[in-house]
Amino acid sequence: MVMRNEPRRLLLLVVNLLLTIQLRVNSVIGLCEHSFVDRNKLYSFSLASPLPRFPHGVLSEDGFYKVVMNESVLWFQLCDGMLFNHDPPRCVECLDCGGPSRCGMECSALVAKNALGYQVCTTIGHVSSTNISVIDAQNPYKGVIVRMSSSGKGQNCSLSVSIICDSTGVQGPNSMEKLGTCDYATVLQHPSGCATIISFHEKGFGWFGTLMTIILCLFGAYLLAGTVYRFFFLGVRGIEVIPNLEFWASLQHRTQSFFSSLVRKFRGPSAGHRSSYSRVNF
């Protein structure tokens, strides 16, 4: 009884391990992806995908971006939480972003204002509240806006970072703008803001191609599930592990027989068949 359950436990362990790895790898990339279709073109933005000169995509390799303007300081990271190996925020209040000892480590955007010689911080963005949209729907080449927000202490705050497409390199962020009571904006020029464009035509297979794709995917899932079940639970080995092997092996012969019967039906009796009868004279 114990030996019979070992394959099942092994299979569950492998599946859980693969799902855990996939979730960790795609957690940042999923937040930084945005795509839409316009005029037979697919515009796809993947801000965290590595580029030749930027292995972390649009994410700052320092763990954060920093903008200083007048009496205010802005820290933020795009599509991920901030990390500080140097120059961390030193705030009087930072309870919803890591506390005074780990200030900035539990949010994605933080702004500080000088009050009587002390920096009072306000969290204005969290990773979980990040969303992406295009800057100009009429001109998708321009770039995207990454908006992150935070709610707390009776006020709603946000930070909007415009990532303008610039294939030559990175510029900024050099300034920030206060749009409301607790809403800020800044601009960053980066190659990751350039969309990957795929052109296609509507004269393809249409609904038929979609239907065939669905059927093939279902067929592949059926074969995979049946093979796993027969291998781990029934102990089948070799080519017999394929479910309904006898049916698939005879499929070619069945198809030939079906078309042969159709040909005979529409052509009528063959010449050889007619010659087997002798002619009778009355």
TrEMBL record:
Keyword annotations for this protein, in alphabetical order, are: Membrane, Signal, Transmembrane, Transmembrane helix
Name its cellular compartments.
Membrane
Major location, coarse class?
membrane
Q: Which InterPro entries match?
A: Autophagy-rel_prot_27
Q: Name one GO cellular component term.
A: Golgi membrane
> According to the UniProt entry, where is the signal peptide?
1-27
Residue stretches spanning the membrane: 204-225
Membrane topology value: Single-pass membrane protein
The name this protein goes by in its record: Uncharacterized protein LOC110424972
Which organism was this protein described from?
A: Herrania umbratica
Taxonomic lineage of this organism?
A: Eukaryota, Viridiplantae, Streptophyta, Embryophyta, Tracheophyta
